Amino acid sequence: MNAITSALWQRRPQSSVRIVDAHAHSGPYSLFFIPESSPGAMVRVMDRCGVAHAVISSHLAIQLDAAAGNAATAEAVDRAPDRFTGYLTINPWQDPDGELEKWAADPRFGGIKLHPDLHDYPLTGRRYARVWEFAQRTGCPVLTHTYDGSPYNDLDEVDAVASEHPDVVIIGGHAGATPLGFERAIEVAQRRPGLILEVCGSFNTGPDIARMVREVGSGRVVYGSDFPFIDLRISLGRVIFSGLAERDQTEVLGATMTRLLQWRSGLG
């Protein structure tokens, strides 16, 4: 039993590993009620679970209003800068270039968030051109929603973008989202070294995570929860009880994402 599982069975927050949630949100969602979605409530859950940091995009940004939502994300980071980093959400229909220009230099944002399914726009579309140019120039990671079979962010779309922009760090949110999607996500990641697999979702299991690590390496798989859309404790438990070696578990839970967030330090 390692230190994390020991803490869990003793019902106390773990402190042996820096856990970074690579895929989180904040605030209310318009289609259904999400309890305790405020940044303050999220921090209380993170404290209880020993999660040091989360990279967030507001639900408002990804769904209804990118401009107001990005401002809400920045405000959430201001409230707890040691606990949150923001994803800058780019909606291709809501002044994508203007939003990128407005926030690109803001240190509160450590990555870019794309949600082609919610925005009804393909990941390969030209309205994302400035995103890929910025990411390639700076090293900023781009988290995109993925879902096997989607017309907008299927693994073929991810493969095409990763092929065209091999130097960009692309975080494949949900790693394809379904059992077949996991299979295809692994295949794309094996071809495209810039693709990182992120493991949150309703269908992912511990054995799926262990297989991803086995086939693409622990430096290419990151823990994410979709919290508070999905309870972070569920996603965290999948990683903790997936049977990973201690070093691999440490990489997946936070070390890899910590490295990916260091790109701003190299801008001078």
Structure summary:
This protein has about 270 residues and is of the alpha/beta class. It is built from 12 helices and 8 strands. One of its GO terms (biological process) is secondary metabolic process.
List the helices and strands and how they pair.
Elements (H helix, E strand, L loop, with lengths): L2 H7 L9 E8 L12 H11 L1 E8 H5 L2 H14 L4 E6 L6 H8 L5 E6 L1 H4 L9 H10 L3 E4 L9 H10 L5 E4 L5 H13 L3 E4 L7 H11 L4 E2 L9 H9 L5 H15 L8
Parallel strand pairs: 1-2, 2-3, 3-4, 4-5, 5-6, 6-7, 7-8
Helix pairs in contact: 8-9, 9-10
What does this structure look like?
InterPro entries: ACMSD (IPR032465), Amidohydro-rel (IPR006680), Metal_Hydrolase (IPR032466). 44% of the residues lie in helices and 16% in strands. An eight-stranded parallel beta sheet has the order 1-2-3-4-5-6-7-8. It has a single domain (3-9, 19-263), classed as TIM Barrel, CATH 3.20.20.140. It has 268 residues and is an alpha/beta fold. The protein contains twelve helices and eight strands. It has helices at 3-9, 39-49, 59-63, 66-79, 96-103, 116-119, 129-138, 155-164, 179-191, 206-216, 232-240, 246-260; strands spanning 19-26, 51-58, 84-89, 109-114, 142-145, 170-173, 195-198, 221-222. The longest helix has 15 residues, at 246-260.
